[in-house]
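Translate sequence into structure tokens.
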Amino acid sequence: MKMKTHLVSTAKRVRGAAIALPSLAATGSALAQGPAGEQPIGMSLLPRDLSPWGMFMSADIVVKAVMVGLVVASVVTWTVWLAKTIELVKARRQVRAALDALGSIQTLANAKTSNLKEPVARFCAAAVAELRLSEGVTDKDGLKERIVSRLERIEAALSRRISRGTGILATIGATAPFVGLFGTVWGIMNSFIGISKSHTTNLAVVAPGIAEALLATALGLAAAIPAVVIYNLFSRQITNYRAALSDTSSEVLRLVSRDLDRGVPVRKTAFTAAE
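Result follows.
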């Protein structure tokens, strides 16, 4: 009799558990839907492509504009690097060849246009032009000062020309990190707004938006670091070029001083005085 009563009690408990399981399943489904019957937050609502291109396509319009601007800045940096490298290599070779040519000249009277190239030809032309304009003047010190002034102006003009384009590298290097930071702040702000609207702090929901925002900072650094490095490299090369120009100007001035001390007439100078 006791055995029969135990079996009946066990059967009732099993039937009660079977009835409770569907009820628990229904309750869990209702909780998963969230308040006001919202759809559950699943993988279908999250961006599936978390590659750089996928994050760019799913980013806010402001963040997209920041990223595009940084990519353009990076392209400009490498374009300036290529063009300026070619220009600097050519200019430094010309100065070295010019100094070698001046080393074989003892006086401006022996200087010929066909034997001299830029920038030495411009320096010599300026010196000869001043000598011809000052022909008959006995004040040698004043004449030398005027020639030095002409040579300095030519040297400054050549320095300005070789420095063109480097300022944009300094601008990109200084501003790109802050532009990227602006895109990051904007993206994170949008992520927090999304968190507030979804009423969830699930990391799977927050992470994609933050990753998109941080991509802007990464692009800012990718644009700024090469710009700063290239700018410093060009600064050293331009400084060396200016020093070579100064040596060239000094060499021409020595030739002029030598001719003046020797009393070489200006009319015997074979170099064509052309600015």
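Note: The chain has one domain: 50-268.
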